């Protein structure tokens, strides 16, 4: 009896709070965000020219979300466990544990493959090149991994290594305020700049 | 700057932000819960709902209100999840299966936010907004209300077991505390790149010519209260590792700050609420020490990267994002398990073995370092009661805490509280590894497989919500087992705490005498920390030895 009476009162309170917290609050924040910060609120979309846009049709991606770059002419992104790779409809890490034999084998495989592709010693391949990220959408790689990819990308695109190295530096960020997070290279931004440099017609 | 110096620097920034703001919010909390005046919007709400916000409720009535409100929440959320396909903004998502909706409804009402499903594949925007976001607010406000009721048990004398009014505590917590901070937090998150729109997934052609579906949503508004209310349920499956939920190291720090803000402020406010500020400071000190040691151990382990796979990879980057690196991932992991949040910015299943052990241990402490909003405070106060009881046994006199005698009735309630969650964890884990359907979900062989199950049940029973994600839990067995663990793990302790609050409020005040143990001095702080550690130690060492400790030695 007590429970029924209090549940009905609870239901009335909850329904009113739902209007406030579940409708008014998110819609008000959406309205404010769309008016004042529409590019960010819409997903930080960028065009092939590297410009900001809020239209999905003009976009080549989100500046925040990583993409798969398998081709030898691109800087590669990290291994991804999101769907078939970099699928925002199935974000995930591998969830494999620190003693997993499967993961151990995969890491060794990736290390050997990366060392062969970049023509470096296996020990020069950094951790982020051989491990899957948490989200499967990691937009960054470490400066160490970008550095060993420079020679290959320059060769594939017929560019001077120094030019490519400078592009990498332009797309490298240190820790925020010197202490937050880790140094990183923005892969999509870097590859957009590369494509731009090569000019139309040099690709495919 | 070296990685270690940067790791220390980010902690220093966090501590500075908290030190500046916790006393301010604490003062606001004290005013919120003790002011006799209602705001106009609150009064309109009480009138429309026909509840009396001025009735001073007996603890039993208060408990019925908590249970009734929560039951209404479970029913409403269940119905919403089962019917979302017919409602607007469903994005073509289908109804959640019955056992899954049962699990999810309990999960969000109990402030756990365990997620067997993945947000981008199972939920439309309406269910996220009107279902999950709403429960993120009200489950947090419920926890805060119970903690405040316990504080009233100490501050009132001969009050006949009356501990305040649940409806007023609930509505004030939402309207005066959680909603204003969430609005500011959400806008700050958008400013840094968190999405906030009502778009359906949209296909784009990537630079390399592939197709990628970008998934928008009302994310920032949910993200802010997800952290502030120590809820932890991600809009997306990847939770705070997803670049749309947590795009930069700065948003990461903001999220960690929001997680810790209310638990620490409420503990700080506790002193003023019971009329002795030193008590609040003592509680905050113990919480800080436990969280500090946990963070240090986790950070050391992730940065050192011991174990088979981390050694082979050259660092513990599996399941971590480059923009956060090891240190910011470790800080987040310690904070999310030290509170009952359960949001993650790195996949806990892939943490180093000692790192995974620390996250388990933080949850096993009973979520008191500093714990969930409200639940952390009442958990710590109950540990303080055990501490004065033990001290009383040593000198052979009736223990007292903040002017209230701890007799055998009070002690029985506290003992039941302390045993409830460990019993759920150990029995639940035993059931899961003792049955075929429980073992079927395990991904890894050996000790790590046991860790996966232990982590899931510990997370559910302590209302944390994070997971060792390798365990397959979207099955009827785990949906029901973990659903029951969350339900009992939330409401049995709450009823015991309210009963205790009622008993304390009925007592007269016992003036402190020469034999009273002062509960704000370093001696007591050390004793309380020791009690917290010894209780976990005695309860969980055997199963920890079989799982993460054994794994650390591999």
From TrEMBL, chain A:
One of its GO terms (cellular component) is plasma membrane. It is found in: Cell membrane. The keyword Transmembrane helix applies. It comes from the Bacteria. The keyword NAD does not apply. Part of the high-affinity ATP-driven potassium transport (or Kdp) system, which catalyzes the hydrolysis of ATP coupled with the electrogenic transport of potassium into the cytoplasm. This subunit acts as a catalytic chaperone that increases the ATP-binding affinity of the ATP-hydrolyzing subunit KdpB by the formation of a transient KdpB/KdpC/ATP ternary complex. InterPro entries: KdpC (IPR003820). The system is composed of three essential subunits: KdpA, KdpB and KdpC. This is Potassium-transporting ATPase KdpC subunit. It holds the Pfam family KdpC. Its main location: membrane. Belongs to the KdpC family. Keywords: ATP-binding, Cell membrane, Ion transport, Membrane, Nucleotide-binding, Potassium, Potassium transport, Transmembrane, Transmembrane helix, Transport. One of its GO terms (molecular function) is ATP binding. It is a single-pass membrane protein.
UniProtKB/TrEMBL annotation, chain B:
GO terms for cellular component: plasma membrane. Belongs to the KdpA family. Keywords: Cell membrane, Ion transport, Membrane, Potassium, Potassium transport, Transmembrane, Transmembrane helix, Transport. InterPro entries: KdpA. The keyword tRNA processing does not apply. It is a multi-pass membrane protein. This is Potassium-transporting ATPase potassium-binding subunit. One of its GO terms (molecular function) is potassium ion binding. It is found in: Cell membrane. Pfam families: KdpA. The chain crosses the membrane at residues 62-81, 177-195, 254-275, 282-300, 372-393, 414-433, 480-502, 523-550. Part of the high-affinity ATP-driven potassium transport (or Kdp) system, which catalyzes the hydrolysis of ATP coupled with the electrogenic transport of potassium into the cytoplasm. This subunit binds the extracellular potassium ions and delivers the ions to the membrane domain of KdpB through an intramembrane tunnel. NCBIfam families: kdpA (TIGR00680). The system is composed of three essential subunits: KdpA, KdpB and KdpC. The gene is kdpA.
